[in-house]
Specification:
The protein contains 16 helices and no strands. It is an all-alpha fold.
């Protein structure tokens, strides 16, 4: 759907006249009419203003512009995860071929990263099989971006366990900057939470206690609201593990309280995984 056509549709759905919107935007009604009829382009500043005036957020606008479907890029990541879970490697290979073609055609780095992801899935993320130049390419890209967007967060999460621990911790600095700078942007919370707790888990494995404390403190700042129940349970669990490292016995009880929550909510996979991690840590501390 063209932008002007969509603006007209949104305006009418909100029962607003052209004059009302034009007055709010401080433009003439004929000028707005040309925008709505796709005879005149609208600046990003004016588009932002009109969406705000009509109480429509940008994600909704993009969804409507794409004929009420998620974008190809957004949908593809969901599809490839589903392929991975189902061991549908034939579809993964077809997606890789399509992505390679799109990259050669457009030079859009997204498709190059998708090719790498398909290759890694085909190799079942076996570190020994995955070529070193893939890691290098991904590292160079992530290091080259001064201010991460949602895309870099997803990319980092997809390949998190591919990087050597030192590289992971270095890249995590960008994650922390993003998390704190955009902490009011609630749409990032799910992916940032996944990354933070995975990074805490890695930090425990490599015994980097300083990083554990940093990631936990960031998580506590982000997920202080009562409705962030899952994240708060994870914070309680990892806080308990951190206390165990300091030989504080109450840490065992705190972690077990978090595990009981997973059991009560029938999250058996989570309970089994994190109960095993607690047992392993207690064994290491003997």
């Amino acid at each position: 759907m063209k932008i002007g056509t969509l603006i007209k549709r949104i305006r009418k759905s909100k029962s607003l006249t052209q004059q009302q919107v034009a007055n709010a935007m401080m433009i003439t009604r004929p000028y707005l009419a040309k925008i709505e009829n796709n005879h005149h382009q609208i600046s990003s500043e004016k588009l932002t203003y009109i969406l705000d005036y009509c109480n429509v957020n940008y994600d909704e606008f993009l969804f409507m512009k794409n004929d009420f479907k998620v974008s190809e890029k957004t949908g593809t990541y969901s599809e490839i995860i589903d392929m991975y879970v189902k061991n549908d490697f034939e579809s993964v290979n077809k997606l890789k071929e399509h992505s390679q073609y799109k990259f050669e055609e457009t030079q859009d780095i997204y498709y190059r990263h998708l090719v790498i992801l398909c290759e890694c899935i085909a190799m079942k993320f076996d570190i020994e099989k995955i070529p070193e130049f893939y890691r290098q390419e991904l590292t160079e890209y992530l290091m080259s971006v001064n201010e991460w967007t949602y895309y870099e967060l997803v990319l980092f999460n997809n390949f998190l366990y591919l990087f050597p621990p030192n590289t992971t911790m270095l890249l995590a600095d960008n994650l922390i900057d993003r998390a704190l700078k955009y902490k009011e942007l609630k749409s990032d919370y799910e992916i940032i939470g996944m990354l933070l707790f995975n990074l805490i888990n890695i930090s425990f494995k490599i015994k980097n206690y300083k990083k554990i404390d940093i990631f936990l403190n960031v998580a506590k700042k982000l997920y202080s609201e009562q409705n962030r129940f899952f994240e708060q349970t994870m914070i309680k669990y990892y806080t308990g593990l951190r206390m165990i490292l300091d030989k504080k016995e109450e840490g065992i009880e705190l972690s077990r309280q978090a595990l009981e929550v997973f059991k009560l909510l029938d999250h058996h996979d989570l309970y089994t995984f994190y109960e095993g991690r607690l047992h392993q840590l207690l064994k290491e501390m003997e």
